[in-house]
């Protein structure tokens, strides 16, 4: 399993490439930006993973910021 917690700009393309080369059974992405999470999930899904769950986590109550934890499995 690989767990990533990228900055707001999302995962670096080289990191995503490395994850795909390593072929872990599961990938967990903890993201603070829904648009970069969607972009990163697309890259991983195109590389042979399936998103099985995305859970929002309100780390900062009374603000508009919500983190998301996504679980992917290799197909």
UniProtKB/TrEMBL annotation:
Pfam families: tRNA_U5-meth_tr (PF05958). This is tRNA/tmRNA/rRNA uracil-C5-methylase (TrmA/RlmC/RlmD family). The active site is at 32 (nucleophile). Belongs to the class I-like SAM-binding methyltransferase superfamily. RNA M5U methyltransferase family. Keywords: Methyltransferase, S-adenosyl-L-methionine, Transferase. S-adenosyl-L-methionine binds at residue 5. It comes from the Bacteria. Gene3D superfamilies: Vaccinia Virus protein VP39 (3.40.50.150).
């Amino acid at each position: 399993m690989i767990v990533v917690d990228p900055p707001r700009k999302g995962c670096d393309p080289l990191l995503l490439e490395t994850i795909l080369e390593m072929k872990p059974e599961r990938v967990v992405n903890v993201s603070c930006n829904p648009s970069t999470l969607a972009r990163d999930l697309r890259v991983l899904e195109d590389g042979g993973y399936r998103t099985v769950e995305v859970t929002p986590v309100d780390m900062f109550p009374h603000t508009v910021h919500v983190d998301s934890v996504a679980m992917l499995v290799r197909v």
